[in-house]
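Check out one such.
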Amino acid sequence: MTIIHVPYHQDQRLADDSLPVSGADTVTVEAALPDGTVWQRLNVLYDAVAAAVAEHTRGGAVPTVVSGDCLVALATIAGVQRAGAEPGVVWFDAHGDVHTLETSTSGYLGGLALRLAMGAHDELLAKPLGLRPIAEDRAILVDARDLDPAEVAYLAQSRLVRRTVDEVDDVVLPGGPIVLHVDVDVVDADELQDLRFPASGGPSTDAVLRAVQRVLATGRVVALNIACPWHPARAERDRAVRTALLTALTDA
């Protein structure tokens, strides 16, 4: 499996050991980011990521993109589209990621990621990347449990499908090709430490891995996007847990 390693949290370069992935088929994407707004900087970085995804997808690979946050998923989707696919999205996340700039209370841009992929504020990332928005009924949000009131209100009236990890199977998946996005914070915070936005009451690592494997077993996943929004590891145990999780996901 080709791993596209994007060592950034949004437009900030992470330490080399922040995302413990390696292997002969690992490609690291970096970019000289310009001065300007965070969106201008992200467009430069994400254009490079989308180009790498498109290149490997055209070559018949199913690339795995590993980064420090969820926004990179837009580059993954854009890259798959550049290669000629029109994917649906399966989005594993403890959070809804369906805020807009107007509804976000924290200002954290990762909380907009899925909504941006579905067409909100398209001038910020989608149009510059050439991303065609994903229709709401072509997206599934899996195990989102930490939701703000504005997200609850949006989800109540949207066509976006919601499921728990245990409910994910071929019956509920969107038809056609799939971009599978896994934010590692979908795992219960008691099991995975030092997340930027921990959420308790979630599934175990094993339950998440089984669900991911069920999606992959369909043979319709054209790209896997893994987001690791965690703080730097403070202990060797944390580094070992993270390495094991990423190894299991990339080997799934």
